[in-house]
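Try it yourself: sequence plus pyridoxal-5'-phosphate, in.
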Amino acid sequence: MICIYVSILHLLFWQLIHAYTIHCCFVDLDARSLWVERASLSSTRSAIRDTEISGGRTKELSGFPSFEYHDARLCVESVPLDHISREFDTPCYVYSRSALTTAYREFDTAFAERDHLVCYAVKANPSLAILNLFAKLGCGFDIVSGGELQRVLKAGGDPQKIVFSGVGKRSDEMRAALAANILCFNVESEAELGILNQVASEMDKIAPVSLRVNPDVNARTHTYISTGLKENKFGIPFTEAEKLYTSGKKFANVRIIGLDCHIGSQLTELAPFSEACRKMLSLLDRLEARKLQIEHLDLGGGLGIRYFRENPPSAQNYVAALCADIGHRTQRILIEPGRSLVGNAGLLLTRVEYIKHTSHRDFAIVDAAMNDLIRPALYDAYHEILPVIINGNSIKTYQIVGPVCETGDFLGHDRKLALAKGDLLAVMSAGAYGMSMSSNYNSRPRAAEVMVDGDHIHLIRERESVEQLIAHERILP
Ligand SMILES: Cc1ncc(COP(=O)(O)O)c(C=O)c1O
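Structure, out:
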C-alpha cells in the first residue's frame, strides 16, 4: 500500500515538474527564443494556444502550422521528430504535406474568380516530391534553368503552366523549354530576345514571351535578395521597356504576350508590391493604348515569412491588395511565390554532438552545418531553434554551431536552451532556400529529406554517400 502511495506521489511530482517546464518555456516567437527565463514570459505567453487533445497536452506553435508539441515532444503532423531521427538519422530535412497544401490553397483561393496562375518558384525547394504535390494541386512553376525544367517535367508539372525566368538563359536551355512547349519566357534584355528569336526560328517555333521590367522599386529587404532597383542586374529598365515592346515586331519568331516584374524576396510589407504593381499597370495601359495585346501580368514572387519578429502580410491580404490595384483589368494574373509556399512547411532536424564550455561562451556543436543551411552564414538570417524533447534541465545561453571549419558556420547565436550531448534540435523555417542552397563543402554528403503525411513518414531523398560525392571525379593517369 505504502509502495502504491509512493509511486503515485512520485508520478504526481514528475507531472508537476513537466507541466511547470512547459509553462515556463513557451513564449510567442516575438521573443527572441521560445526558451526564456520565466520573468520575461507574462506579456507574450498568450500567443501559444494550449489545448487538451484526448487527454494529452498539446502546444501549437504560432506561425508553424503542422508543427506542435504533444506531451513535450515536437511533432510534425502526427509524427514525433525523434522517431524520424531514429529511422533516418540526422541531419535531416522534414516537411509537412499538410502545411505545403495549406500554403498553396491560401494563394489559390485568395484569387477567387479572377483568372490566375500560381507559379511556384522552384528554386526555393526543387524536391521532386514537393513539385509533384504542387502539380497535383494544379500549381504552375517558375523555373530558372534547364535543370529546373527537367525536374518539373519529371514531377508531372504541366508545361503550359511553366514560366522561365532568369537573367542568363543559355540557348540549349531555351531549346529545351521550346521543345517542352512552356507557357512563357520571362525575357530580361533585348540581347536575350534576339537569341530566343534565333533559337525559335531554328526550331521553326514561335516563342511566347513576357518582358521582365525593372520597376526601380525598393523592396526594403536584404540587399542580396533585392532585385527591383535600377542598379540591380535584373530586368529591362522601366524607361526602356515601352520601346522594346513596340520594337518586338522585328523579332519574327517571338510573340510578346505578357508583362512581368519581380522586385525581391522576403518582403514583409505590402507597400513595395503595390508600388511595383501600379508602375506595371501604368505601363500596361500605355502598351494597350498602342494596341499591343498583353494577355497576362506576372507580378513575381517575394512574399516574406515569419522567421523571427517579422510580421508579413498573409497570402490572402497580399493577393487582395494586388487585386485591388489591378481593378477592372481582365488580364490573367500570374504570381511566382517560393518562400511563402514552402518556408514554414519545413525544418532541419539536427543532433547535438558536443557541448563545449569555454570561459567566454557555451557552444552546442551540432551535426548540421552551413553546407546544409547557409542562410545564417550568408545573410546573417535568423532561424528559430527548438528542442525536440523538452526536458527539465537548466537553461544556458548557447552558440549553436556546426562542424565546418569556418567561424561563419553557425545556425544560431545566443540561444537559451537546456542542452546535453545527443539532444535533438529543430531548426525552423528551413523549407525554403535550405536544401536547395546546400552544398558538399567539407566533403559533407547532403542531408536526407522526408515528408510527413499524417502519421506516415516518406523518405523523399536519400542521404548522400561519400561514394556518390566522388563518383564523377578522376585522377590523372
Ligand atoms: C524571378 C523570381 N521569381 C520568384 C522568386 C521567388 O521569390 P520568393 O521565394 O521570395 O517568393 C524569385 C526569387 O528570387 C525570383 O528571382
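One thing you can check immediately is this: The pocket of pyridoxal-5'-phosphate is lined by residues 121, 124, 142, 165, 227, 262, 265-266, 300-303, 336-340 (CB under 6 Å).
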